[in-house]
Amino acid sequence: MCAQIPTVLGRIARLSWRTDRGAVRLLIGCQVLTGLSAAVLLTATARAMGPILGPEPFADGLRTALPALLVVALAAALGRTASAVATYAERRITPLLTSQMDVALVEAVCRVEAAAYARDGFSDRQEAAEMGVTRTHVMVTDAQRFMSALIRMVTAAGVLSVLHVMLLPLLLLAVLPAGIGALLNARVDYEIHYANISDRNVRGMMRWWATTSRYGDEVRANSMTDYLVHWYRALSERCDRRTLAAAPRTLRIALLCSLAGGVFLLATWGALAWLTALGRIEPAITATAFIAVQTTLAALSNLVINGAAVFHTSLYLGDMQNFLDDAAARAPKRGHRQLAAPVDEIKLDEVVYQYPEKDKPAVDGVSLTLKRGQILAIVGANGSGKSTLTRLLTGIYLPDKGVVTWNGTDLADADPRAVWQRTGLVPQIFAQWPLRVRENVTLGQSRTHDDGPVWEAIDAAGLREAIDDLPSGLDTLLARDIFGGSELSGGQWQRVAASRALYRKPELLILDEPTSQMDPRGEHQIFEQIKAVAADRITIVVTHRLENTKVADHIVVMEHGRITEQGRYEDLVHGGGTFAELLELSQDR
Ligand SMILES: Nc1ncnc2c1ncn2[C@@H]1O[C@H](COP(=O)(O)OP(=O)(O)OP(=O)(O)O)[C@@H](O)[C@H]1O
């Protein structure tokens, strides 16, 4: 365990150095000053005690000792000032370092291949890594206190060794059990933390879902509150049970270590008294010995306690580093080929994709060719693979077998940014960003000071009236939970999602159930818009409203991950297949 401490200290030093070199220099300077002042203080104390406790009259002794006493006072003041400045330097580093770690974690998660989210335990490992960010808060403080205690201990121990060689080993034995206890308890804490990760992760997610105002109506009207609170409490109790189950273990460790430490401490004081009684330590410097023992004891205690804290932190930092390494390994490793503009053809050739932990492919041997100007409609039962197919078409997922090409370039070889710069997606479940209207439309695009294109996209989705009604138009914050924020209706939010995709003027426009929450007027407008802009791009519409597929040049019907029927609307309506059956069912009311 102790072997890890230098490595962790080195890592903390490197991270801190990268964050604020000036503060690190200041911190190191203060540490050195603290150590020096402790050494000067002890030496000057020894000098002062000689005349004060010597044979000459007390007043004369005091006068003789005055210069040494002044040095003691100055050293003490210097030590305290250095310690205060060290705290300031540490406070300059910690917030920046914590934010850096936090941003690194968020960035790592945002940059992994989307397929990584479906990997078993990814989310739990992320939760474990979050603890590393939290511990960053105390990391520099722990390291600084450890180093400061080490320096104090070295200086005080030097003085103590001069007094008698036996005193230092005895003191070491007195504090060692406390150190071992702290390390063992750190390990127990970490084990409990690890055992609770899954439950804590689920609890954190459920906390958000249960308390966000977004789902407040559903929670109340469906009488979910009691169940959710009960469930939340049950999860909390399960975590608490694990924590409590470890309490006797930590008590045993603490008691045994205190006992051993107490015995050795008694032996140290006994040894000091014995050495004084035997005259091995002069009575004149017994007071110095007393202070040296006290100082070394305090420094040693701080050393082992902060050493254990550094070790404790290292466990969580280890999790965070493992997660960051894992996320880096899961970042897209595709080629760097750029795409020739415009995108004239997107082709899927015998494409297969299976989610991890699933026993059947979600998309199973699909071949398809899309040409610029074409509108493709994808229909099929729930779970037939439509959304997964759109993820393959955009390169969000790469196929397990087969290839997806854009203008003949395999997406596995293409720079994903080049692909996504040309894509506009309205997913089934879209984000309702707690941002202003303008940012909700332009998010991900370079900033423009002209609102013309934003209004154009808003008009295309029929959203102008709703935006005009908002208190600050495009500047209105769309977050009802935030002071000054406003809220839109479900259909209006869906129009925002459509505006967002249209604003990008993408070469591939994918709309997955884009009008599921819209009124007929809104739905009509969106499909008119799709037709109006179709000539410049490839458009894909995924829908269960089969009437809407009339806009499409080509329709594919998916079943169990395969294309089982395809053609134009009129062909499929009279084809006697699944499409005709589904259409008939939708009209049978
Ligand atoms: N992220 C995921 N992880 C694991 N399995 C998934 C994931 N997303 C989808 N699946 C599975 O893949 C299959 C196809 O899902 P997909 O979402 O592509 O269907 P869909 O046709 O779009 O369905 P719907 O009409 O309900 O939107 C389903 O069996 C589903 O359970």
Automatic annotation (TrEMBL):
It is a multi-pass membrane protein. It is found in: Cell membrane. It comes from the Bacteria. The chain crosses the membrane at residues 24-46, 66-89, 154-180, 253-275, 287-311. Residues 346-585 form the ABC transporter domain. One of its GO terms (molecular function) is ATP binding. The keyword ATP-binding applies. The keyword Calcium does not apply. Keywords: ATP-binding, Membrane, Nucleotide-binding, Transmembrane, Transmembrane helix. InterPro entries: AAA+_ATPase, ABC1_TM_sf, ABC_transporter-like_ATP-bd, P-loop_NTPase, Type_1_exporter. This is ATP-binding cassette domain-containing protein.
